[in-house]
Design brief:
4 helices; nine-stranded antiparallel sheet; alpha+beta; globular; about 25% helix; single chain
Length: about 190
């Protein structure tokens, strides 16, 4: 009897879920800043003793050598999470905990993407904040990380390996070396469609 009632309730609520999701759209923006390590060390003599969060904060006060801003696609993993999170029988708990970084900017991102074109590394999120309907995530890539790679694509993911890709963006290629740091800010926003 209880299973019958639950099944009936789920059938009644499906149109409501579809209506909510059809009224919500997603936007995603990626902001990139590249800094010269020598300039950061000159400005902050204690630079080498700072942790990643402190370094991220300090870079915000220094003009970058390069900047980029791109709008990008959100992926099916984020969309499915939004649906599952609304379902009363689902207990969904995912975190945008890492940023996958790749080197292939030859294939345009698609909402159906479940991975980057050519992933070369994963970096844990340095800082994140939930502001109204926007998740703001920041990643600081230190001078010792991902050196020798061309950074050309990024996407938030839910784990350091095997996670769910939430967005996918192509960025202006960055030749990462030990003389530079990279800060990547990703904003995911749910808004009226």
């Amino acid at each position: 009897m209880i299973q019958t009632v639950i099944g009936w309730l789920q059938r009644q609520l499906r149109p409501w879920y579809r209506h909510i999701i059809s009224e919500v759209g997603w936007t995603a923006n990626v902001y990139v800043r590249v800094h010269d390590l020598d300039e950061l060390r000159a400005r902050y003599p204690e630079w080498d003793d700072l942790d990643r969060e402190e370094k991220l904060e300090r870079t915000r006060g220094v003009p970058p050598r390069e900047t980029d801003h791109v709008s990008n696609v959100t992926c099916v993993g984020l969309h499915e999470y939004a649906i599952d999170d609304l379902h009363p029988d689902q207990t969904v708990d995912i975190d945008a905990s890492h940023l996958a970084v790749g080197s292939d900017d030859g294939t345009q991102p698609s909402t159906g993407d479940t991975s980057l074109n050519n992933q070369v590394g994963v970096v844990s999120i340095t800082d994140s904040i939930d502001v109204a309907s926007t998740l703001k995530s920041s990643v600081f890539i230190d001078s010792s990380q991902l050196n020798g790679n061309t950074l050309a694509e990024v996407g938030l993911t839910t784990a350091s390996s095997g996670g769910t890709l939430l967005n996918h963006a192509l960025i202006s290629p960055i030749q990462k070396d030990a003389d530079s740091t990279v800060t990547i800010d990703v904003d995911l926003t749910a808004e009226d469609a």
